[in-house]
Amino acid sequence: MEIILKYFPDLTQKQIEQFAALQKIYKEWNEQINVISRKDIDNLYLHHVLHSLAIAKFVSLRGASKVLDLGTGGGFPGIPLAILFPDCRFHLVDSIGKKLKVVEAVKDSIALKNVFTFHSRVEDMDFQYDFVVSRAVAPLADLVTWTKRKYLHKDLNTLHNGLICLKGGDIDAELATVKNAKKIPISNYFNEPFFGDKFLVYSEQ
């Protein structure tokens, strides 16, 4: 939890309590439904929560922003972002229903009112958003194709509406498949060694 306060020192008391509660909730649920590697659950805040919050360092979402978390799994990056931006609306989508059961439990346990889950494929979603976010879900070209008509036409934020992905490793070949995709090292924001080969990829829509 301290690692979150290191980079986000201005959290409200409610946000601190919500972030602090995640370890216990995820640990208990992960024993029933494996949404995080069992070896990795003790690194929840560094590897999952802070990693998700890199998006918040890239763009500070304005109130009333609408965000789709594509292939949310256990709720990353959607849950941490929803805690940080309580005035924004988050749709967390996954094609695997049992993972959304965990997300619903987390959401209810910490009283997150701005998160809505959908057991669906993104192509079947009828809503439009300011941003689509995802973490290690699919190749970049596929994500761009799936989300092509999912964006609102008017920009609400300082950044143009678009796709923001969390990726790792050598992604240059992926980037080459999408025109104007930008790669931003997460080490620009966080100095822990874990982020040395982690990137944000932004594709304006």
What features would you describe in this structure?
The protein has seven helices and seven strands, in the order H-H-H-E-H-E-H-E-E-H-E-H-E-E. The protein starts with a helix and ends with a strand. The protein is globular, with a radius of gyration of 16 Å. The protein has a single domain, classed as Rossmann fold. Strand 2 (89-94), helix 5 (97-109) and strand 3 (115-119) form a beta-alpha-beta unit. A seven-stranded mixed β-sheet has the order 3-2-1-4-5-7-6, sandwiched between helices. With 205 residues, it is an alpha/beta fold.
Summarize the structure.
The protein is of the alpha/beta class. It is 34% helix and 19% strand.
Question: What is the topological layout?
Answer:
Blueprint: H1 2-7, H2 13-30, H3 44-58, E1 66-70, H4 78-84, E2 89-94, H5 97-109, E3 115-119, E4 131-135, H6 140-146, E5 162-168, H7 172-175, E6 182-185, E7 198-204
Parallel strand pairs: 1-2, 1-4, 2-3, 4-5
Antiparallel strand pairs: 5-7, 6-7
The separation of the N and C termini measures 35 Å
Weakly predicted, low-confidence segments: none
Question: Describe the biggest sheet?
Answer: 7 strands, mixed
CATH topology: Rossmann fold
List keywords for this structure.
globular; single chain; 7 helices; 205 residues; alpha/beta; Rossmann fold; 7-stranded mixed beta sheet
